[in-house]
Design a protein that fits this description.
Elements: H1 4-15, H2 20-27, H3 31-39, H4 46-56, H5 60-63, E1 75-79, H6 83-96, E2 101-105, H7 108-117, E3 122-125, E4 128-129, E5 132-133, H8 134-144, E6 149-154, H9 160-164, E7 170-173, H10 178-185
Parallel strand pairs: 1-2, 1-3, 3-6, 6-7
Antiparallel strand pairs: 4-5
Helix pairs in contact: 1-3, 2-3, 7-8
Amino acid sequence: MANIFGNVLRKLRKEKRYSQQQLADLLFVDRTSVANWETGRRVPDAILISRISELLGVDTATLLGITEYPDQKPTVIVVDDESLILQGELKVLQEVLSDMNIIGFNKASEAVSYAKLNPVFLAFLDIEMGRANGLDVCRELLSINPRTNVIYVTAHTEHSLDAWDTSASGFIRKPITPEAIQSQLTKLRYPIHGQTKVADLNQ
C-alpha cells in the first residue's frame, strides 16, 4: 500500500527546500529517521507529527494525507474481537457506505498499526475486546490523527458516559442497523463533504 504519509512529507519538505538533514536538524532527530518516514519504514509519534506540521506550516490533516488526496476513497475501519459479529458489521457497513474503503480488524493492535500508515476517516470500535479497551484505542487513533471520527458499537451501555470523554463522534448499540449508521453520519465531527454518499435504503 502506498506510503501516503511519507509521500506527503517528502513533497512538503521539498517545497520548503529542506534537505533530509536540514529537516532532521530542525526536528532534533537523526537524518535516518526522516529517511525512514519518507520510505514508509517508520512513522513518527504524535508529538513529532505535531512538530513537523508546525515546522512545515500545514495542519496534521494535510500532513497525514487527508486533504492532499481528495479523490481517494475515505477509509473506514471496524474493530471487534468477535469474528461473527465483525463479519455482520462489515456487511451492514458495506451496504450503507458503498463508496468507502471498509476494513475489519479482530485485533486492536493491528488497527492502530494500520492507522499509523494510512489516514482513517471513520472508526467503528467495540468497547470491550478482551484485554483491549475501545476507549483506549480511540485515544490512540486520535493521537495519530485528531481528525479521525470514532463511533462506538457496543452492547455495554454503561460505558456511554466514559465514551463521551474520549472525543468520539457517536455511540451505537449492538446490533448495528443501517438506520443507526445513517443517524450517526449526520453527527460526525469531521465530515468529508461530497464524499460521504450513503446508499439509499428505500430503493
